[in-house]
Amino acid sequence: KAMETSTKSLISIEKSKTSKIDKVDFDNLAFGSVFTDHMLVCDYKNGAWENPKIVPYGPITLDPSAKIFHYGQSIFEGMKAYKDIEEAIWLFRPLDNHKRLNISAKRMAIPEIPENYFMEGLSALITLDEKWIPKKAGSSLYIRPFIFASGQGFHASPANEYKFMICLAPSGSYFSGKVKVLIEETYSRSANGGVGYAKAGGNYAGQFYPTQLAIEKGYNQVIWTDDNTHEYIEEAGAMNIFIRINDTLITGPTSDRILDGITRKSIIEIAKDENIKVEVRKITVTEVVEAAKNGSLKEMFGAGTAAVISPISTFGHKGTDYDLPELQESYATRLKNRITDIQYNRAEDKFGWRYKL
Ligand code: PLP
Ligand code: COI
């Protein structure tokens, strides 16, 4: 009981005097481009996280020497809140996002955020802005928790002050239509011993230029290969990758270089539950190209919180485009239905992943 009281009063709330909600076209939501009325801000000072508060959404002030600007000490998470037909609110495996945020924090020399700040902060913020959770099928409230170095100084060392924030964005789908990808052979997203497994802001900045080059050639997204040989398929810009050869679903093992996706690990379990043969193993570009040539390559799809499951229609490699077949009964559709039925509380959740807010 005492615990309960102390966590209840953990977050202070300053409500916005007005709401922007009437200006939002919930039938035509893009991804992550409108934001709710409130945000959570929590400061790290004098060696401790303190004073988590919910305030009206808006700009924040930082010193120009804040280390985020110079040394990129910045990490984030991506989650979603879903509303079922009874208007109950659900999250999906949120404790895994908390764990991963702290894995990223450790790698970037950022202080870890306690679980109660993360969970109570999420809960208080989403409850306050719950009217912003879209009800339209396929839409959801995208949740962006992040931490960055607000502390001052040009010395190239970890800051002594940080901000943990959560912003919410009612969102539609990440990709509009099928995805055309380019298998990247020149640039690398990450390297052994590097920060690829962390959700560090710089990992994304580093992808923008190679992705721009791919977009200029008519692709939507790059598929990253390993930095050493460019022979192993790793992941996409914001998704883990699954490849179906004949009836077997294959995805690469996670490593130093790959983000340990929550959608990925859920899809592996659901696929097994569907009696789909799943292999978690290294897969080479050569194997995929050969399979495309001999017709055994049936599907490729990306998996991630923002992208959910996004089927790939075409992949490019060494100047040749390979089209994936149009299947009547794809694994992508089957697995997407299973996972979204759990997320939106339309079906039983035998795995215990759904989290009621
Ligand atoms: N890989 C990268 C690089 C990502 O940014 C993401 C998105 O979060 C994923 C994979 C998928 O991870 P998750 O399913 O946890 O969202
Ligand atoms: C997510 O799926 O939550 C992501 O992080 C994708 C993001 C880079 C847009």
TrEMBL record:
Pfam families: Aminotran_4 (PF01063). Keywords: Amino-acid biosynthesis, Aminotransferase, Branched-chain amino acid biosynthesis, Pyridoxal phosphate, Transferase. CDD domains: BCAT_beta_family. GO terms for biological process: isoleucine biosynthetic process; L-leucine biosynthetic process; L-valine biosynthetic process. The modification N6-(pyridoxal phosphate)lysine is found at K199. Signal peptide: none annotated. Its cofactor is pyridoxal 5'-phosphate. It is an enzyme of class 2 (transferase). It catalyses: L-isoleucine + 2-oxoglutarate = (S)-3-methyl-2-oxopentanoate + L-glutamate; L-leucine + 2-oxoglutarate = 4-methyl-2-oxopentanoate + L-glutamate; L-valine + 2-oxoglutarate = 3-methyl-2-oxobutanoate + L-glutamate. GO terms for molecular function: L-isoleucine-2-oxoglutarate transaminase activity; L-leucine-2-oxoglutarate transaminase activity; L-valine-2-oxoglutarate transaminase activity. Acts on leucine, isoleucine and valine. Belongs to the class-IV pyridoxal-phosphate-dependent aminotransferase family. This is Branched-chain-amino-acid aminotransferase.
